[in-house]
Write a structure and sequence with these properties.
Helix 4 crosses helix 5 and helix 9 packs across helix 10. This protein has twelve helices and five strands. The protein is α/β, with parallel strands linked by helices and about 300 residues long. It folds into two domains: about 90 residues, no CATH class; about 170 residues, Nucleotidyltransferase, domain 5 (2-Layer Sandwich), CATH 3.30.420.
């Protein structure tokens, strides 16, 4: 059954002319080759004091090929790169084996914002391990494996801070991952004003952490929540939640803003880059899933700076 919405009807005040241009520029990003001007200097820096075989292709090329891999396989990427050499846009091309090896070894990092005052939201979603069909899964696998993806983002700006990927059943809990990443952000000098999370983050330790660091919380309390005898931060939040009820509590806490830093990002990445990995090796699949979010965030940042 279709669920009825409550609250005021959403009014889209987006600047569609500006947003449309950003989407177009994301396409330009896929063929932006300005970095080629520093091909030789980048290789010289990469090979400085390197023991063994020297790098022949700069990291900038590998990163761009890692983005292409969201839609094209490694052999197809070799073909694109070879064609760019033919039309004199690149000095050399690498074969698909080299692309595969270098991309899987790529250690991608998310860009941190310049503004030191931030809000944080977190959530988890699943992605499919391999894109094999039902027949292959039934004949050769006991059960289809899933990857657990937990993201940390700013719900007010949509900036992605970190993406943690692990095999289903081996991951840390969502509150543990959120607390760990908030510690890293604070260590980098960021002041976290508020944390948003769904019922999965309803944990005493996370509430206590936020209270110790003066972080306001907008964490949905579980329906089965009970009071303790210690009058903790979570107990006080539970009391307020029961007193106001979900709708009034959500309005007061601005809980709906959480979606821009969680569901919106998951939806965009899965829609643009797919929700399954091609890799057959678990380690490579974990890295591939993380690169999906990195590629989306990089393209999005590029379009805003253009």
């Amino acid at each position: 059954m279709k669920r009825m919405r409550w609250g005021k009807r959403f009014k889209d005040n987006r600047n569609w002319v500006k947003y449309n241009e950003e989407l177009v520029v994301r396409g330009e990003f896929l063929l932006d080759l300005e970095w080629v001007m520093s091909w030789d200097s980048e290789l010289e820096e990469m090979n400085r004091e390197k023991v063994g075989a020297k790098y022949q292709y700069p990291e900038s090329l590998i990163k761009l090929q890692a983005v292409w891999y969201q839609w094209i396989d490694y052999r197809g990427i070799e073909g694109i790169t070879r064609k760019l050499v033919e039309i004199a846009k690149l000095p050399a091309f690498n074969d698909y084996t080299t692309i595969n090896r270098r991309v899987n070894r790529l250690d991608v990092e998310f860009e941190f914002p310049k503004d030191k005052n931030i809000c944080v939201s977190s959530d988890r979603s699943g992605m499919k391990f391999e894109n094999s069909g039902e027949y292959r899964a039934r004949m050769y696998e006991k059960r289809r494996k899933f990857l657990a993806v937990t993201i940390i983002a700013n719900p007010l700006t949509g900036e992605l801070f970190e993406c943690d990927v692990s095999l289903e059943g081996t991951q840390l809990s969502e509150p543990e991952i959120a607390e760990w990443n908030m510690k890293i952000l604070m260590h980098r000098g960021y002041h976290i004003h508020k944390f948003f999370g769904d019922g999965s983050f309803d944990a005493h330790d996370l509430f206590s952490f936020c209270e110790e660091n003066k972080i306001e919380t907008a964490i949905k309390i579980r329906k089965t929540a009970v009071f303790t005898e210690y009058n903790t931060k979570r107990d006080r939040e539970l009391e307020e939640y029961k007193k106001l009820g979900y709708k009034k509590w959500a309005k007061k806490k601005q809980y709906g803003k959480r979606w821009c830093g969680t569901e919106t990002i998951f939806s965009a990445v899965k829609r643009k880059c797919g929700e399954e990995t091609r890799s057959h090796i678990i380690k490579n699949a974990l890295n591939e899933a993380r690169r999906k979010f990195w590629a989306y965030d990089w393209m999005k940042s590029y379009s805003k700076q253009a």
